[in-house]
């Protein structure tokens, strides 16, 4: 998992910065699927955060220190009033305060973690990930099929 993306900060670097700032977050979306064993390309980093002003402040500080300097121009209140905020590109970091009705605090007890390049990455549990993929998008539907196969293999 050494270089996940060709340009810009890579997932472990961003997660290290989030952890250093003590951000309460879980990786969700395509990267979480990859961490569960779903083989696919992911072009952004989706995170679900605890929806507090202090946490949103720490998210912005962490991103500003990893090549997303313009994150310092955002206000924590702007992050908190939206379900999703997109910061940057190469990769974009999509900050979710809720996804498919699921909040950080609800997902945390079922979360997993993995090590990538010496960085602990907390990510959404498999059942929650499958639930959040029920969007109607073709890509998410394909992810669900593969994730359900992974679940079946794990259950054996």
Q: Can you put this structure into words, describing what you see?
A:
The structure is a single chain. Helix content is about 40%, strand content about 20%. Strands 1-2-4-3 form a 4-stranded mixed β-sheet. A hairpin with a 4-residue loop joins strand 3 (about 85) and strand 4 (about 90-95). The protein is globular, with a radius of gyration of 15 Å. With about 160 residues, it is an alpha+beta fold. The chain has helices at about 10-20, 30-35, 55-65, 75-80, 105, 125-130, 140-155, and strands at about 25-30, 45-50, 85, 90-95, 110-115, 120-125.
List keywords for this structure.
156 residues, alpha+beta, Beta Polymerase, domain 2, four-stranded mixed sheet, 6 strands, disordered N terminus
Strand order of the largest sheet: 1-2-4-3
The backbone outline, from C-alpha atoms, is globular
Query: What is the CA-based Rg, rounded?
Result: 15 Å
In total, the number of domains comes to: 1
State the helical fraction. Answer: 40-55%
Distance between the termini: 27 Å
CATH class: Alpha Beta
- Overall number of strands: 6
The structure class reads: alpha+beta
**Poorly predicted segments:** 1-7
Provide a concise account of the structure shown:
It contains 7 helices and 6 strands, in the order H-E-H-E-H-H-E-E-H-E-E-H-H.
How do the strands and helices of this protein lay out in sequence?
Blueprint: H1 11-20, E1 25-28, H2 29-36, E2 44-49, H3 53-64, H4 76-81, E3 84-87, E4 92-96, H5 104-107, E5 112-116, E6 119-123, H6 126-132, H7 138-155
Parallel strand pairs: 2-4
Antiparallel strand pairs: 1-2, 3-4, 5-6
């Amino acid at each position: 998992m050494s270089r996940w993306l060709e340009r810009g900060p890579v997932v472990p670097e961003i997660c290290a910065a989030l952890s250093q700032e003590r951000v309460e977050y879980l990786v969700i979306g395509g990267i979480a699927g990859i961490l569960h064993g779903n083989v696919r390309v992911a072009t952004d980093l989706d995170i679900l955060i605890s929806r507090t002003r202090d946490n949103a402040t720490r998210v912005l500080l962490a991103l500003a220190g990893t090549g997303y300097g313009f994150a310092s121009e955002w206000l924590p209140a702007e992050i908190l009033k939206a379900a999703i905020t997109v910061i940057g590109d190469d990769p974009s970091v999509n900050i979710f305060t809720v996804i498919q009705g699921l909040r950080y605090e609800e997902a945390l007890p079922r979360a997993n973690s993995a090590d990538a390049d010496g960085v602990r990455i907390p990510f959404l549990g498999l059942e929650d990930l499958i639930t959040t993929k029920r969007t109607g998008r073709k890509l998410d539907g394909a992810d669900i099929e593969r994730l359900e196969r992974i679940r079946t293999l794990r259950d054996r």
